Amino acid sequence: MKKVHIKKPDIKGTFHKIKNLKKEDIKAHWKESKARRQRILEERRNSRFAKKMQPVYRFMNRFSLVFHFLLACILNFFIEGISRHSLIQAWLYMIETPKVFLFNAYLIFATLMIVYLVRRRVFARILISVFWLILGITNGYMLMKRVTPFNAQDLKVLSDAISLTGNYFGKMELIMLIVGIIAVVIWVISMWRRGGQYTGKMHRVVAFCGLIVSLMGYVVLTDVAIDKRVISNYFGNIAFAYEDYGFPYCFTASVFNTGISEPAGYSKETMEAINKDGALNVSETSLSDEDKPNILFVQLESYFDPTEVEWLQFSEDPIPNLRKLYSEYSSGYFKVPSVGAGTANTEFEVLTGMSMRFFGPGEYPYKTYAKTKVIESAASSLEKLGYGAEALHNNTGNFYSRAQVYNHMGFDHYTSKEFMNVLQTTPKGWATDDILVPHILESMDTTKQQDFVMTISVQGHGDYPTEKVLDDPEIIVSGVEDEGKRNAWEYYVNEVHEMDKFAGQLIEALEKRGEPTVVVFYGDHLPTMGLEAKDMKSKYLYNTNYVIWDNIGLEKKDGNYAAYQIMAEVFDRLDIHTGTFFNYHQQRKDTKNYLADLELLQYDVLYGNQYVYENTGKPITEGHMVMGVKDTSISDIVEQLDGTYSLYGENFTKYSKIYINDEKQTSSFLNNTRIDLKEAELQDGDVVYVAQVGSSNTIFRTSKKYEYKDGALKELPTDPNDPETGRNAFVGKDAGEQ
C-alpha cells in the first residue's frame, strides 16, 4: 500500500516571510492571483464542456425571462412546501388555487429582474433565490414553534425573540441553525468566485426600466387580485391568510402595507360633522369620587369557554368560577380581531376603542405606531377623571414593546415579569396566572383614588403538546379520537381550569378588599387547535367569551360586543363619558355610517391632521410611566470567607442585577432578599446599586445608589438630574428594539 506523506508545515518559515513582506510583494501576489484567476476562467470558457454548452447558454439567455419565471415558480413551490411542512400540501395549494400561486410567483420573478443589472448573473440568481428560501425556511421553522407566521414586524422585535429562544428552541436546534447559516454564507461566497460573468453587451438602462415596470406591474396586479377577491388586504387571522394567499404576498404586505390609508371624503368639514361640536371631546361623569369604582380589565391568554366546542366532553366543568359569574353577571360573546394569535391586537382594540380592520394586513400597532408615538387610551381618558392607571403582565416587559406602548398610552405604572418572583410555571415554561393576584392588589395600593388596572395573563399560551405531559390532570377530556390532539386539548383545558382558579382568587381578594369595583374578564383569541367555524356553537371563529363582575349592583345585561366596543360599554353602564373613541362608540353605535366614520376618526387621530383635537388640544402629549410599584433596596453587604459578597435587601427578583460604577456584574439571585456577587472586587468609593433588567439589557428601574466604604454601604443622596437614580422615572431604552 502506498504511504501518504504529510508535509510538516513550516510555521517558523511562514512567520519569517510575513515579517519580511514588502508592499511590492503584496501587489505582485494579488496581480499574480488575478492573472491566475483569469487563466482559469479562460480555460473553463474554452474547455470542451463549455464549447458544447455554448448553444445551451445562448438558448437560455435568449429565453431567460421564461426560465426566470419557471425558477420563480419552483422557488414559490418549495417556499410553500417548507411553510406548510408538506410538499403534498404545497402541491394541493398550487393546483387548487393556481391564480394565487402564479401571483406569488410573479412577485419572486419581479425581484429576479435585478439579475440583468449585473454581470455576475449566476451569483445574483443564487443570492436572490437564497434570500427567498431563507424567508420561507424562517417562516416554516417559526410555524413549528408558534402559531404566528413570520412577518416584517418580527424583525423589529428581534431582541425580544432572542430573549425567548429558550421557550421555543433547544440547544441542539440552535447549534444546527448556526452551523446551517455559516454553511450557506460560505457557499454563497464561493459562488461569487465560481459563478462566472456574463460576457455579452450590458443594457443596464433597459434592465432598470424592466425592473421598474415589473414592480409596478406587481402593484397593479395586486389591486386587480384584491378587486377580484383572489387575495385580500385584511388578515383576520394572519396564519390563515398566509395559507390562503401565500407567503411571498403576505410577507411583502407586512413590509409595505402598514398604517391606515386616507379614506375617501376625509376633510376638516367631515371631521367636524363626526365630532358634532366637540361631543367626542367631553370628559364627564355623574359619579362622586366616593362612588367611582375601580375598573379592572383582565385579558386571559387564549381563553374561551371550552364547552363551546360541539364535540368536546369533560369529566367536570373546567370553568366553575367563571360559569357562576356568567349566570349572575353580564356576559356574552366577545368578538376579537384574530384567531389563534394576535394577543396584542385584541389588547389594542380594548384599550383604544379602535378597530384593527383599518390597519395594514397582519399589522401590530404595538410594533408600529404605538411604539413610537403617544396614543389616547382608556388609561389617559380615565386619568382625566382622577383615576390612577396601572398595567400588569406576567411575561417580560419588552414583549410586544409594551414598556414603550404603555408609557405612550398614559399608564402610571407597569409591573412586568421582571418585578415578579415567579415560582410556578406551566410545563411549557410560561408563568402561571396566580402570581398576578398579589401584584394587582399592590398596584391598586399605589394611589389613594380609584384605579384603572389592565392585566394581561400568559398561562394559556401555546403551543399545546401532543405528547402526554400531565400525569394526573384534574380535567379528563374525551370526544377526540386522535391521541395527539386529545393530549393537546387535555393540556389546554387544564390550563384554562387553572386560569379559572385565578379568576376566582382575584374576585375573592377584591371582595375582601371591600372597595367598589368592576372587573371584566375576557379571552383574547381562540387557541391554536385547528378549530373550524362548524366546530363552534356560535359558528364563528372570532368569538371568545367575556363577563363583567361588580360589587356595586349593576344590572345583568347580556350582549355580544366587539373588542373595540367593550370599554365604551362598561363606561356607559357606569355613566362615565370620556375618551374620543369611547364617546364615539357610546354616541354612534348601530347608527348609519358607524364603521365608515370610525375609519375616518382613526385616520384623523393617527395619521391625519387631528381635526378632532383642534379645539381641545391633544388628550395626551407625553408619557410619565414608572416600571413596577415597589423599590428595590440594599440594606447590608457581607463579605464571605472566599472573598465573594452577599447583598441583602428587599424586593429582589431573578431579574435584579447588581451594578458597580455603572457596570453590570455577574451575580446569583437566591431569594427576594439576597443576591450574591461571585467575581466582583469592591474598593472604597465604588458606587453600587440594583437594577431591574429586561431583555437586551433594558434597565427598567433602579434602586438608590450606595457608596462602598470600610466594608459597608452608605446610601448616597438622590441626584434629581440623574434619570436613572431612584424610582421616579421610566428608564427603559427603546424597549424591544435594542
Automatic annotation (TrEMBL):
It comes from the Bacteria. The keyword Transmembrane applies. It is a multi-pass membrane protein. InterPro entries: Alkaline_phosphatase_core_sf, OpgB/LTA_synthase_biosynth, Sulfatase_N. Pathway: Cell wall biogenesis; lipoteichoic acid biosynthesis. Residues 713-738 are annotated as: Disordered. It holds the Pfam family Sulfatase. Residues 293-575 form the Sulfatase N-terminal domain. The chain crosses the membrane at residues 59-79, 99-118, 125-144, 174-192, 204-221. It is found in: Cell membrane. Its main location: membrane. Keywords: Cell membrane, Membrane, Transmembrane, Transmembrane helix. This is LTA synthase family protein. It comes from Ruminococcus hominis. The lineage of its organism: Bacteria, Bacillati, Bacillota, Clostridia, Eubacteriales.
